[in-house]
Specification:
Strand content: 25-35%
Distance between the termini: 87 Å
Largest sheet: 6 strands, mixed
Keywords: Membrane, Signal, Transmembrane, Transmembrane helix
CATH architecture of one domain: Sandwich
CATH topology of one domain: Immunoglobulin-like
Number of helices: 2
Length: about 260
């Protein structure tokens, strides 16, 4: 499943990176490599998306290409409320999604545009957002592979999703009685009810991690069946038209024999 949303989309300039979401480089699976994952300390459920950043370092002399894999452990937050999009400066970066229980893995379909060398890093970025109203905890893990799918290093970071606080203000009771006149003879007007302000909608959303519902899975077979019936009807129409044309040609053919006058 490829997430393109979609939508794709530019990085939010206002996304702040919290210090609590920054991890030290993980111990390298291949000596000489490390991954530093930086995540926002908190997300607001139903709020704007923020950026998750992974930086791969190397102290080896040989240069390598890198492929990223992001593992999202939902925990107390359902996967269908999490939106993640991998992106580069040129736009959305294609990934493949695998879901196993409450864990989703996004793997880059191709190698990162950058090249990992000594004193030169490679950076992977993901746009992350949460829908709904409830909060919870989510953990992210980033793995860096080379062009031979060898795991170079990995790093992880946890974040907290804060829920939306429901606020309600008392509304004045409405009666059918007409307003009483004042001493001056003027009627008092009841204050107009103010319209409730809804929760701010996020300005950016990323691709959903949960797979599509079963109803959407019926769209493909339905289109195939409809296409088969369309072509059968077209063939039948062409066949009837050919028969009609042949009959018309036979009717218009003049007799070739000669007849003597009586």
């Amino acid at each position: 499943m490829r997430h393109s949303t979609a939508l794709l989309w530019a990085v939010l300039a206002g996304s702040a990176l919290g210090a609590a979401g920054t991890t030290a480089p993980a111990a390298a699976d291949v000596p000489g490599f490390g991954v530093r994952l930086t995540a926002p300390a908190t997300f607001k459920s139903g709020g704007n998306t923020k950026t998750l950043t992974a930086v791969v370092t190397s102290d080896q002399r040989a240069c390598r290409k890198v492929r990223f894999s992001l593992v999202v452990r939902a925990g107390s937050v359902p996967l269908d409320r999490i939106r993640v999009t991998r992106f580069e400066d040129s736009g959305e970066f294609p990934t493949q999604l695998r879901v196993d229980g409450d864990t989703a893995t996004l793997v880059d379909e191709r190698l990162d545009p950058g090249t990992l060398c000594r004193n030169r890093t490679v950076t992977g970025r993901w746009q992350v957002g949460f829908s709904g109203r409830d909060g919870g905890e989510v953990r992210f893990e980033v793995q860096a592979f080379d062009e031979r799918d060898t795991l170079l290093s990995a790093g992880g970071a946890g974040t907290e999703v804060t829920g939306q606080v429901a606020t309600s203000s008392p509304t004045p009771s409405k009666t059918s009685a007409s307003p009483e006149p004042t001493e001056t003879g003027e009627e008092t007007e009841a204050p107009a009810d103010s319209e409730p302000t809804g929760d701010p909608t996020p300005t950016r959303t990323a691709g959903a991690l949960a797979p599509a519902s079963e109803d959407s899975n019926l769209l493909g077979p339905g289109l195939i069946v409809g296409g088969v019936f369309f072509f059968l009807g077209l063939l039948l129409l062409l066949r009837l038209r050919a028969r009609t044309r042949a009959a018309r040609q036979r009717a218009e053919t003049l007799p070739t024999g000669f007849y003597t006058m009586p």
